[in-house]
Amino acid sequence: MIRDLEFFQILMKEMLSKARLLALIGNSKKEELNFYFWLFEHNFKEVKNAFDKFDMGNEPPFIIKRLMTAITSSNTRKYIRRAGISDLSEPIMSNTTV
Amino acid sequence: MNEKSRDLKRVRYIASQTLMFFLKERSGNLSYRKLEMLFKKPDGQSEEDYQDICSGAFAKYASGQIRFKNQRLIQKIENNKKYQGAKYLLNHPLWLILENPNATIEQTRKYMRQLDPDTQNRLFKKNKMNGVLERNIWKTYEPFSWVGKNNNLDALACFLMLIREMELLKQWHSYVNAKWYAHELFIRLSHFEPISTLADNIYSLIYHHFINKNQPITSSYFPKEKHRMFEVFKNEYASP
Description:
The complex is a heterodimer.
Chain A: H1 2-22, H2 29-41, H3 44-55, H4 62-72, H5 74-81
Chain B: H1 3-26, H2 32-40, H3 47-53, H4 57-63, H5 71-79, H6 86-90, H7 93-99, H8 105-112, H9 117-123, E1 124-126, E2 133-135, H10 142-148, H11 153-169, H12 172-189, H13 195-211, H14 227-232
Antiparallel strand pairs in B: 1-2
Helix pairs in contact in B: 1-4, 1-13, 2-4, 7-11, 8-11, 11-12, 12-13
């Protein structure tokens, strides 16, 4: 069970480093979390396969193009950026007082 | 000691650890001894004098040896602007649902009312006729996605509450959805400090009391007239 988590995290890291070669993704916790959110909103396996295929020097698969658009276009960037809705300095621990 | 009270105890230890990590991060990586001195040292006493009587309690909280119970101290921490949110974190609704995984509908809704306002707005809608807040039951993926985008403990607590609520309401599709979103969000959160340090403990609680419950969903969960529908959409009911 915990091993599964570790496995996912290795995959996520791998995909982040590959995505960084294609688009500008910052080093902050928030930006990385936003990318991972995008990753989970899509089919994880499909994204991984797409990255693997792309490594082989083929035309970028649709999902990779979609990621590049999501990061560069002002409209879709907004969608990804919306991940930190309340723009908390610390996305993991919400410091909202109720 | 039964399972429930053992978990209840474990959750409060994890909450204390999380609080300590939060304080350390906010303070700019001060040592636990210095943090203890900052909050527990009486005003008139010098740092040297306090060194001798410093119990090292903060380090013990952080390592999960003891749990944080001092309400006066948490109020003192909360009053310091730099550490605002500490009290909410210690009494976070995530700990409430984790220590009570068999909560009733009323309890889960009470916990939901303690989440951050943005999540509450998605969970409840105001009845225009009588002004009463009613639960807005989610039937599509979109609200799950919106809450998941917050990437914080409130979102995780919200999904766990939804898992329990949907189980009681026997809405199995939303139930499985909430399980997936909780699982994925936890993977994202556990990638970073401080959750990464506590990931094993928190995930084992989530897995045993929420994700691994009612596995697998079979046609016996549905009324007879829906058995055919279940056979067609069987994959939609697969849990993480």
